[in-house]
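User: C-alpha cells in, sequence out, please.
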C-alpha cells in the first residue's frame, strides 16, 4: 500500500489502520493470517484480508498473492 516501512509505520501511528475493526497505533503490532486490515490512504480506504506471509521482503508484484481485497470481493 505504501513504498517504505517508515511510511507504513507513520500510517499506523497516525491511527489510519484498523486490524479486525480495532484502530491500531503501535507499528510493531503483529498480524495473523485471516486478519482484516482497513487502511485509510489519502481519499481511499482499502480493506484487505491477510492470506499469507513472504519469506523475504520483495517488490509490489511479489506480495499481491498474500492478501485478498475484501471490498473487491476477491484477489487483488
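Assistant: Sequence out:
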Amino acid at each position: 500500500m505504501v513504498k517504505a516501512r517508515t511510511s507504513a509505520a507513520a500510517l499506523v501511528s497516525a491511527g489510519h489502520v484498523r486490524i479486525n475493526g480495532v484502530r491500531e497505533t503501535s507499528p510493531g503490532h503483529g498480524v495473523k493470517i485471516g486478519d482484516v486490515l482497513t487502511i485509510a490512504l489519502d481519499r481511499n480506504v482499502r480493506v484487505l484480508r491477510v492470506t499469507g506471509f513472504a519469506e523475504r521482503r520483495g517488490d509490489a508484484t511479489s506480495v499481491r498473492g498474500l492478501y485478498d481485497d475484501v471490498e473487491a470481493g476477491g484477489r487483488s
